[in-house]
Write a structure and sequence with these properties.
The complex is a heterodimer of chains A (about 400) and B (about 160).
Chain A (H helix, E strand, L loop, with lengths): L13 E3 L1 H4 L1 H12 L5 E5 L8 E7 L2 E7 L5 E5 L14 E3 L2 E3 L6 E3 L4 E3 L21 E5 L2 E5 L7 H5 L3 H7 L6 E11 L3 H8 L21 E4 L6 E5 L27 E6 L3 E6 L2 E11 L2 E11 L4 H14 L8 H13 L5 E3 L13 E3 L7 H11 L7
Antiparallel strand pairs in A: 1-19, 2-11, 3-4, 3-6, 4-5, 7-8, 8-9, 10-11, 12-18, 13-14, 13-20, 14-15, 15-16, 16-17, 17-18
Helix pairs in contact in A: 5-7
Chain B lengths: L5 H19 L3 H6 L8 E6 H5 L7 E3 L2 H14 L7 E16 L2 E14 L6 E14 L5 E10 L3 E2 L8
Parallel strand pairs in B: 1-6
Antiparallel strand pairs in B: 1-2, 3-4, 4-5, 5-6
Amino acid sequence: MTEINLSWPKNYNEVPKEAFVRKDIYAEEVKRIFHGTEWHPVAHESELPNPGDFKTFRLAGVPLLIGRDVEGVVRVFYNACSHRGNQLETAIMGNKTEFECPYHRWLFDSKGDLVGCPNPREFLPGFNKADYPLAQPRFDIYFGLIFVTLSAETEPLLEYLGDSQNCLRELLAGDGRLKLLGYQKVRYDTNWKSYTDNDGYHAPLLHQAFKMLNWQGGKGRQYTATHRGHICFESALSVATGPSVLKDKSLIEFKGQDPAVGSRIVSLFPTFVSTKHLDVINLRFATPIDAETVEVHYAYFAHQDDDEDMVRHRLRQSSNLLGPCGLISMEDASVFHRIHIGNHTPGSAIFQKGVHDPLKLESEFLQNDESGNLPRWEYYRSVMGFERATV
Amino acid sequence: MMQTDTSLEAALNALLLADAHALDSKDMPGWLGNYADEEAAAYYCRSAENSEHGLALGFMYDDCRARLEDRVTFVNDIWAGTFQDYRTRHFVQLTSFNRVDATTLEMRSNFSVFMTPKDSGITQVLAAGQYLDTVRQDKNGELKLLSRRAELDTSVLPRYLVYPI
């Protein structure tokens, strides 16, 4: 770890804008956070429904190969040959029972074992294939959601999730038995913290479309679930009645089985945001590319028990409601960019809505409060070793 | 080209250019006007990556006339004033077409779209891919899009999308 100096304000509701733009801070974040003691969701099992299915993903630059072996067991490997480290699989997704590195033709099975390598007699004396499986990061699974941590010190996953477990499980349809509908992938020109600061959180006045969803009253519940500041939102959601500007109202139709809580959001430190709005189940796998760029893979799901009509409804709703072109979210995407530009100015970003006392952290908030992000900022500050001013 | 009907080819090219012109002019009613006035008129925008893996989800999924009309409302009314605007330039090239029946044709074309955000002024590629179109020909010979699938080679967009591709 490297000591980085950043003067952090006394008030909990102030975040120095330098934290979003300094490259030395970003380099330290990669070490302390992305390679540190955090769990990172990287896939859902339903993206790999069949034996041999795999997906690749880069977590803050680290290449991962997430696969289901021939016996149906999900495994996570580093996507690099155990010989010279060549990137093993180049496809973003697919189905293979063996992975061959083209560099020296080392061949691995779906369990990661090295099963073939030409001319081993020319290798080091005593060379044994059994000593060269694909390396694996620690991983664990919660209702199908696959988490990776790059540190041996991270606490067990359930402890990490803490009180976010229930909301996350319900968001994953209660049983995690999902069916992949597809992806929307995008890069935003913003620091990863600006993305997470503004993705789960909803600025109601930004969104004309919220009027249609009765989302401007802020009646839902928002709470932080652990000292890391994971945030859960649970909100009733009723589609506004009366004349609609939409000619096809199916976009905001709610057919689901969870009407009391039509909207759930679980936002886990550092970058994961997951949402269930109306009948859209959306997991956002996000990773920083550099200090000024974040890449987000919006993955959308149906439930395995859905009939054909429900799958079609979810497909039609998912494609047009959320994501980088969604009716109720396109403006968020623009705000990510504009906040990042604005963060190149002196001073602090100041949170107002829902803040009762700038010298205290709370854990219960209203749906549209900005203050729900503050426990996460306090955790971030402590992980990064920034001293809070006393005056 | 399967067809040697040069006037038909010219008419298809005119339809492609009319759509590019409407989009680059941010003329959403004009964009809508390039589609057939039928309930089944549709526009989809999705990554080739999704299509190749049998995943139907798109960036935009306007599978009926009502949704096309709503797309105009999104851009012109609901989102107005909330985003950093950008210019686009669509470059389109017809690659094949064939007649399905007396009133229906299919055509494919390649596209590339440049974007220039108004604030940065830096031009970059927004997306490249191909249009897979079904075209309706009315009694007067006029051509309209019955359905268009903009299939993007660009699986990771460099920016959010306001306008259809």
